[in-house]
Predict the 3D structure of the following.
Amino acid sequence: MRGDSNARITAPPMRVSPESSPTLPVARHLHMVRYEIRGPLARRAQELERDGYEVIKLNIGNPAAFGFRTPETMRIATIENLSEAEGYCHQKGIFPAREAVVMDTQTQGIAGVTAEDVFIGNGVSELILMTMEALLEPGDEVVMPAPDYPLWTAAVVITGGKPVYYSCRPEAGFIPDPDEIARLVTPRCKALVLINPNNPTGAVYPREVVERFVQIAEENQIVLFSDEIYNRILYDGAQHVPVATLCRDTLCATFGGLSKVYRACGFRTGWVFFSGRKDHATDYLNCLELLASLRLCANVPGQWAVQTALGGVQSIYELTRCADRQLSIVRRQRVRHGAARAPARARRAGVFLQRRLQNAFSGDVPARRGDAAQRLRAHRRTARRMEVGRARYRTSPWATVSR
Ligand SMILES: Cc1ncc(COP(=O)(O)O)c(C=O)c1O
């Protein structure tokens, strides 16, 4: 590493031979980019694994790592169409996939989206980067949640934009305060981002809050970016309100994909569709198409699974129902043992993930330099806990769903 300022870069460490001291300078605009979930935290986990620990990795949401298989019909759709997936496809994606996204918008009650308004990307990740790159000039502001899914911040910073954060406080059930958001919008602001259902907090925003997001974006004529990749992973009766059902008078970009609801993050297939006021956004959409063309196209085999994923029975509901049943058991036990009932605002997605996170980080892993016997005991405890978890999983309905 060159100097102190470079130490902030979270890219994998460069391999430098001891003799060749002046290192290759890296691009300045990456200096402030952080992506901890793949950075130091993941590297520390790797070290622990090398020491023999079994690490439960919740840093990136990787359903496959926890035994959640991609629905078989999607796997078959991909295999059956492999011969159609050998060449580049249209820069915006194959028509059947884009059309399937359009039909899904209709199911959700979103008006006015055509296949022309849909872009398929190598995951939502690529599309977040592209949509920001096409929009922002250095110094432009984007109002976004804190905490956020860190790629949103990274995408703004890479383009020279400035993230301006509204807070999602635990004491408010992680629901943002629209009045705070309204105060943060300045003439330099180009966009407002919401992540709903939210990663990392798990909150699902009530209709009146989503309405205020729309109102603020429309009044200020800024683009509304809505990351709805978890739109069908809902627990405890939570209702998801797609922002595109409400937004009419400004450009609205909604992101979705195969990674979470459809448990196919390795397929690297996501989409963004545009709705609301599009007439003034032709230049922006053309620039986005230019960026899509520069990378030629998104991964084609994964796109062939989109139609199958979005049509028919949605197996994710089987999984969330199962989690809901477990949640109600936990609640009953808490009531029986005199613990306070979970507050109503626990109606949020990801509540189980949060619990698992708490368990995973409950201090079982001692410092690396701790004595060997202590480490061995901790390792055995982790292994026992994982074995119990696996046994529970084998006998639960989750094990049989979508195989
Ligand atoms: C809120 C949110 N948006 C986007 C992504 C990226 O998804 P993809 O796999 O489609 O790139 C993730 C991944 O965890 C996420 O949590």
Remarks:
- The beta strands are 118-121, 141-146, 162-167, 189-195, 223-227, 251-257, 270-276.
